[in-house]
Amino acid sequence: MIRASVLVSGDPLSLSRGAEETKLAIEAELSFYGLEDEVQVGFTGRVNRTDVLPAVIVYPDEVVYGPVSPKDAALIVEEHLFKGRVVEHLRAPAEVLASAVETPGPEGTPLLGQKRIVLRRAGSIDPYSIEDYIAEDGYFALGKALTEMTPDEVLQAVKDSGLQGRGGAGFPTGLKWSFVAQQPDPTRYIVCNADESEPGTFKDRLIVEGDPHAVLEGMALAGYAVGAHEGWIYIRGEYAMARDILNHAIEQAEAMNLLGDSIMGTDFSFHVHVHAGAGAYVCGEETALLESLEGKRGVPRIRPPYPTVRGFRGKPTVVNNVETLANIAPIVLNGADWFRGIGTARCPGTKVYTMLGDVNVTGLVEAPMGTTLREIIDIYGGGMKDGKAFKAAQTGGSSGSIIPADFLDVPLDFASMRERGAGLGSGALLICAEGTDIVDLAYVLIRFFKAESCGKCTPCRVGNMQMLEALDRLRRGMARRADLERLEEIAGYVQKASFCGLGQAAPVPILTGLKYFREEFEARVRD
Amino acid sequence: MDEELVKVDQVIDQYQADQEALVEILREINAASGQYLTRAQLERVARRLRLPLSKVYSVASFYSLISLKPLGRHVIRFCEDAPCHVVGGKEVWDALERELGIPFGETTPDGQWSLLTTSCIGACAVGPVMMVDTDIYGNLTPEKVHDIIERYREADRAETAAASQGGEA
């Protein structure tokens, strides 16, 4: 009988710090004490504080240890699992627990703990075990859909939930699905966009590494709703571990008939394939992604026609982000009303953020839509680092807005940010304290776009180069007034005239930087 | 047959010479056969997938995980994006150039090290971050950079010594 579970953080960082050896040491020590049949050992994602990696979590006691060397691991087995005594000196700091492993706070005080939908299993189950997933309501939504609901009812539930795409644009998911469902062509595809490359964003990697079946189940539900029988996950080439976890999960699900032909004995079939990229930011743009998926250079296509009409292999295609798909099963299982009860009226649900920069706790946060930046920094981020004052935040990765302290109390959701001329984007929150050089920040951001522009259209290819040159002169104090004027002018052209979202978004940090911190740019002008 | 082409064929077979898998095939050959693709390998892929060489070249040259020029024995890919930059990335950048004695984008004359930048690798919570070959290192400081590189140098020296001893025996 299994009486305890031991999970070792198995993300790439933990692995680079010897998590594999730690796990092996635990297994060896368990068999030394004859506990191998009583204690289950597995890998999980990581806890959201990196100084404790590799971490070891012992259930049901919910004790987190970290960082744990192989030698420490042996001690934990001997003391905790054999003798039943917690090894106090190896425990991770108490505040790690609350944010890392615990789930929602009491009703009515949602901000005391994270509200977790997408991440509710990540960290508490073994991502290599489909049984773990099933034990926590996994594939229940798919079962319910296939046996009790018509495809239209599934589609309607997603529409009613008000779910919006979590990749950054916030397009209504149900509406996108309905476009595909209406197409006359019977061959349709579901594509999961896991080409997460936005600097500062790694939520999709951790969702996949922590709870891969949630994504697969979401894809199967999407397939059922729109009449697709094949799905593709396009994952960036750098995410080798996430790719292995997905392939393993697909194999397990097919073996249990939860994916594949005639799922659960019904006449619905759905196959999922994983396709890894080879390093190109632009492939996160959905039409460039489809080109790459077809084995070509990842350059964007002209829209319309949109992928919902002519997508992968020219067929109607749903392209959804990882986080979007991970929301589907909970919506189908619990209903649209339940989902609408979380977050704001205009943007229901939660958002997963990656918080970085000058805060005490960096890492992954899932909070209801509408939570303010101040709350996220104070409650989840443990406040500003060294008690410094907040200066600016950059939301949504490189293509996001640079926003000043005035935004601290704005509810974070797609609609509220859009109204203020900013964007929520993919969920990256780069927090900058007083003393941060905004001109230098803008320079680094544009350097990224210069490197990642695919070269197809001139405004983006040449414009980013010119903006970078102007910013370089500014940051070195060599710029003239004309350089600053030119920078602003070109930024406007690039935003308006670029072919795809990459180029259109590239000048955003400059334009928002100028809007809120113009004096810093002015101060660098020589004459 | 040339050994490097045997590997090429293995990867192509694994994907059933599917044209749609061109990106994956090139990436895997690149990873399996060292750090870059040769002209002979590209020609092989083109012939087996029934694609023009120009198309294979155009795809190979587009993606950053596929290289068409020789790189060093070890490749450092340092993240140059904003989240790493604001937490001390510039100092680490300088330290890397100093430690290896080459600017970014180049390979040391002895062919041991290539120093490249990369876009975000999704480990931003522990920035600044770099990859040495396939290993990820986070929370970098100039001192740590020295220690990490020294570790690889030592391992290489040990390997060379073992190889030369083995050769004598």
CATH topology of the largest domain in chain A: Rossmann fold
What is the terminal separation of chain B in angstroms? 30 Å
Instruction: Return Rg of chain B in Å.
Output: 18 Å
What is the number of strand segments of chain A? 13
Mean pLDDT of chain A: 91
* Coarse shape of chain A: globular
What is the second-level CATH architecture of the largest domain in chain B? 3-Layer(aba) Sandwich
- Side-by-side strand order of the widest sheet of chain B: 2-1-3-4
User: Assembly state here?
Assistant: heterodimer
Question: How are the strands ordered across the major sheet of chain A?
Answer: 10-9-13-11-12
> Stretches of chain B where pLDDT falls below 50 for ≥5 residues?
none
Low-confidence stretches of chain A: 98-113
Radius of gyration of chain A: 24 Å
Number of DSSP-assigned strands of chain B: 4
The percent of residues in helical segments of chain A reads 40-55%
Distinct helical segment count of chain A: 22
Which chains have the largest interface?
A-B, 53 and 39 residues
Average pLDDT taken over every residue of chain B? 91
- The string of secondary-structure elements of chain B, in order, is HHHHEHEEEH
What is the topology?
The complex is a heterodimer of chains A (527) and B (169).
Chain A: E1 4-9, H1 12-16, H2 19-32, E2 39-44, E3 56-59, E4 63-65, H3 70-82, H4 94-100, H5 130-135, H6 140-148, H7 151-161, H8 173-181, E5 189-194, H9 203-210, H10 212-226, E6 230-235, H11 240-255, E7 271-276, H12 286-293, E8 317-321, H13 322-326, H14 328-334, H15 336-340, E9 350-357, E10 363-368, H16 373-380, E11 390-395, E12 401-404, H17 414-419, E13 428-433, H18 438-452, H19 458-475, H20 481-497, H21 501-505, H22 508-522
Parallel strand pairs in A: 1-2, 5-6, 5-8, 6-7, 9-13
Antiparallel strand pairs in A: 1-3, 3-4, 9-10, 11-12, 11-13
Helix pairs in contact in A: 2-3, 6-10, 6-14, 7-8, 7-10, 9-10, 9-11, 18-19, 18-22, 19-20, 20-22
Chain B: H1 3-14, H2 22-32, H3 39-49, H4 53-60, E1 74-79, H5 82-100, E2 113-118, E3 130-132, E4 135-137, H6 142-168
Parallel strand pairs in B: 1-2
Antiparallel strand pairs in B: 1-3, 3-4
Helix pairs in contact in B: 1-2, 1-3, 2-3, 3-4, 5-6
